[in-house]
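lol ok so funny story. i was supposed to be doing the assay writeup but got distracted and ended up predicting the structure for this chain instead. priorities right. anyway since i did it might as well share w the group, maybe its usefull for someone
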Amino acid sequence: MIIALVAMFAVLFGIPANASSAPAKSVVVIGVPGLQWSDVTLRDTPNLWKLTGENAAAAMSVRTTTNRTCSIDGWLTVSAGQRARLKSGSCALPPEPQPSGTGAVEPGWQAIVADNASTGYAARVGMLGDAVHRAGGCTYAVGAGGVLGAADASGSVDHFARTPWDVPAADWTKCALTIVDIDELSGVYVRAGVDASGEQAPVSPAQRAAAARAVDASVGRVVAALPSGIPLLVAGLADATGTPHLHAAIGTVAFERGYLTANSTRREGLVTLTDLPATVLHILGIPQPSEAVGSAWTSVPSAASAAQKVENLTDQDIAAQAIRLMSGAFFIVLFAGQLLLYGFAAIALRRGRPGPGPVTRSRILATTRVGALAGAAAPVGTYLANLVPWWRSAHPAPALMACVLAAMALVTGLSLAGPWRRTVLGPGLVIAAITAFVLGLDAMTGSDLQMNAFMGYTALVGGRFYGFGNMAFAVFATASILSAAWLAEGLLARGRRNPAVAVVVTIGLVAMAVDGMPGWGSDFGGVVAILLGTAVLTLLIGGWRVSVLRLGLVGLAGSAVVLGMAFFDSLRAEPTHLGKFWDQLAAGDAWGVIMRKFEAMLRSFGYWPFTIVAIGALLFLFLVLARPLTWRAAALEAAYRRTYTLRPALFAGLTVALVGMLMNDSGVVIPALVLTLAVPLVLAACVRALELDAADAGTSRSEEPEPRPTPAA
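and the output, tada:
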């Protein structure tokens, strides 16, 4: 049985034999801090244009330890294979190295090494140079940045030249690793300096174009000097301006013509800076040290021309910039709107005070219900907006907002379009089911809707590139729990408790699989949160007592399931972060990762918009859920009388919010997003219950709503 189970997981996870290829004797890396795809044109950069058309290309996420990656930070990240930094460093050009024989030594290197070893990333600066030396190769640096990238643990490189024109023709294949720093683009911004407020002084388009032409001339020099068959990697490994961007990446010889990708992103045409040193080691046939977190570049064949590649890769940065610029404002407007809705509802739904006439009252209730449903449709609207290529509009930001609003209107309309609109839970079920289905299908097909979505992720941040981000997990888990509960409503109404329990368990298990499977959701803590939420819902709907012991046993089972997924994922040739976590756990290095995430969770309470909306939503639920009669807020009490699953669904959703917060580094973001979906749907159900009560009272004021039948087992 155990052997069969192991075999099943091996097939399910697609564990292949490790592929091998003949390593190259040498590889050349050209680092161009600041190089973006918008700089690459046929007229100004013909050498880069030709390389792009004939080889493999991608957009590169260069995020290191801060929002903006300075040139030195980028070079140190190449050296470490992990996010690294120059502590308290400005975005100046790399310092001139000290000559040492035919090579050079980086000044202040040991302080840089010690500082990075003490950060949460524990970056081992010098990893790349050490790995090449252990394999018997030498390192060649061209330019000051090249020394930072190629230096070993002592800060030394074996050979050094100041510019590509100073390298003798025979020296391009002298060493296993040659790293070239071409700093004309970053240099033009450094020379421009900062203004009186400390911000980057402006650089004109003409100045930037001139710098790009100088970069292209240097790249052309290297390409012309390289013998045939030597792999060349070009990387725009840092930000030149004060604004973070995606940058250019090109790979030759070792890659087919098309687009670059890597297991770290699992996206065609997108790689990360930490993938660059992993690619170098892979090309040279050198085992990758455990400290390096990146994945080697691979290529996706494509006949796309240089123009098509440049346009497609530029689009990625345009979309990321729109999200970066508008994300803060979007959440402020969304959360402010929800807080106003809670306040209005808390006043409008109270009994025992003079009120408007029946017609006006019904309009207020109808408006409140539509507003609540529209608020609940906002999360899925942010994902559905990406079905339209809004980033290709002349004005991407307004186009994005228009797409989000249109999607919200469509989902809200569907929730009120059919006969279900007359029921208490029907409209909420439609929105929850659409949300769960859209996000689940998206996770199973590559998570394209989450990339560059307000409630998704962007490559600029570089925290996640596939699977469920923390915000998407919160929305998906909540939508799944509510869908399961409200699908069981009809069965309970017919006295069929056991089938209702089966529906809840089935949907919960499917949601767990979608959330946790590597290659789908690839989420670690989310599986435990969904399992515990499903357990609470199952116990309440089944009529069993919810106890700490039962939930503890379920939590242990969920942890075992997640660790099992991580173990089998670690056996793959290209594991996801689940498999890498298992490797860290087995090596005893996982504690640092756990502490870094725990500290991030605590820091999340400083995200005031999320913290405020979470507190506001919880207060709203407390006032109408825990003590409805004290505050005379009878709306939820009316909804409870008319439904079997509203109360269990609320408790299950709160369980997901609490466990998800503790299990994720996003912390308070999880309950904020859970409540952003759940509370408006609960409010809509309460309003409909009041409308039905009013209709019953109009028929016969003396009659009370018929009591619910007790479901049979």
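Residues 306-348 form the longest helix (43 residues). The radius of gyration is 29 Å.
back to the writeup now i swear
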